[in-house]
Specification:
The protein has 7 helices and no strands. Keywords: Membrane, Transmembrane, Transmembrane helix.
């Protein structure tokens, strides 16, 4: 085998190896791109779930705005990886939704916490959102101070959701005229906030519950006082009637004896 033949064979083998490496790198790049796309799509669904399923009373406006901004940023990354008119259209609709929410001054209607299974699901959302905040902090898509503030709020909401459930039961009992049950439920609602009663976030909720409880207790005390007063008046009336009847009997007896 001549030197030329050997050189040609080496070049062929080297070219084959280089081509195989090129194909392997290309496949790795394709798989990495697919992995990124899958991860971003999962994040889209996750953030959309926070936006749609987290009750409005546990989602301050700035928190919701941040979630909107995260979804738009994720759409931008997806469009850069795989340009798609559908993705572009969805991003546009999301931007409109965000702008509409930002300019809307009307307070969003609270979702009633009227079911224990709902409370469990909402608490799971809180825990999931906490994990997402930690991940976002690592990815530098949110400030540490904001993460701290949102984490404190989520800790407060973890207790408040139970308190709101008992407050709902108390309100329901009050509207049904079951005052004693309403008082019991409002006291339980306050009790649910005991672990965080010193926190700034809990103070307005505690004051509101105390005011509602005091109002019902005052109404109930007034109602009992009126019932007692009515009862006493009825007793006095009955006593007067008895006295008049006795006097009538005595007068009749005296006249009969005198006539006799």
């Amino acid at each position: 085998m001549t030197a030329v033949t050997i050189t040609v064979l080496l070049l062929v083998i080297g070219g084959f190896i280089a081509f195989a490496i090129f194909l392997q790198l290309k496949e790795q790049a394709r798989l990495e791109k697919l992995r990124k796309v899958t991860t971003l799509n999962n994040q889209l669904r996750q953030v959309r779930r926070y936006l749609d399923e987290m009750p409005p009373q546990y989602q301050p406006k700035d928190m919701r705005m941040w979630l909107f901004s995260r979804m738009i940023a994720i759409y931008d990354q997806l469009i850069e990886l795989q340009p798609d008119p559908t993705l572009t259209r969805r991003r546009g609709h999301l931007a409109e939704e965000m702008a509409e929410f930002q300019t809307n001054t009307q307070k969003r209607r609270a979702k009633p916490m009227n079911d224990e299974l709902l409370i469990i699901e909402v608490k799971r959302l809180f825990e999931s959102f906490k994990s997402y905040l930690i991940l976002s902090q690592k990815e530098k898509t949110i400030d540490q101070d904001v993460v701290y503030r949102y984490s404190k709020l989520l800790n407060f909401y973890h207790y408040k959701v139970n308190s709101d459930y008992h407050a709902y039961l108390a309100r329901k009992a009050f509207l049904s005229g079951q005052m004693d049950t309403a008082i019991e439920m409002y006291k339980e609602a306050l009790s649910q906030l005991t672990p965080i009663k010193e926190s700034v976030e809990a103070q307005p909720a505690i004051l509101k519950l105390k005011d509602l409880l005091q109002e019902i207790e005052d109404d109930l005390a007034l109602q009992k006082a009126e019932e007692e007063m009515t009862k006493n008046m009825d007793s006095e009336d009955e006593g007067e009637l008895d006295d008049e009847w006795s006097k009538f009997i005595e007068d009749s007896t005296f006249k009969t004896k005198k006539h006799f």
